[in-house]
Structure prediction request, 188 residues.
Amino acid sequence: MASTSDFLSRLEALVSRYCAEVAAPHEHLAVLRWQMAERHALDDRATMPGHVTTSAIVVSPDHAQVLLIDHIHLRRWLQPGGHYEPAEQFCRSAAREAVEETGIAGLALHGWHRDGDLPFNIDSHEVPGKAARGEAPHLHHDLQYLFTADPRLPLRAQREEVHAAMWKPVSALHDIAPNAAARLERVR
Prediction:
């Protein structure tokens, strides 16, 4: 297993590249960058004020539909994702979450990614804590990756975390991940 230092080195390189090549002028990622500079264990879900998550924005090949999950604890529709789990690439952590939560087959990293691991979007957002875990509200620094899959294939929701998995019109992404939705419009 990689050390927190190795993880942070990989993350720093990724965030620097994202800021240089992808980020819009309003994307500063100040808390994430501060936590990296302070050498926080961002691969540990107990790290506060935030830690890394990965998620998959899965679209149909024609970009007309997006695969969403009805999250049990957050009680809202979201893209599949979760806390970072060690993987060779961050995009593989996102893919694993999508497959686990939806049962989707044939998941493919979108051609936008060229080399594979540059995030499509990085979204730092506040999430509610869980009293059962003694967890206060905190930040998820979500590394979002764009994938394609065939919406005709069957889905199987992971019942421990997900009420349902369903393909919805891609316009639904605007309420869930507005920055990623705007970026997706330019990818077509």
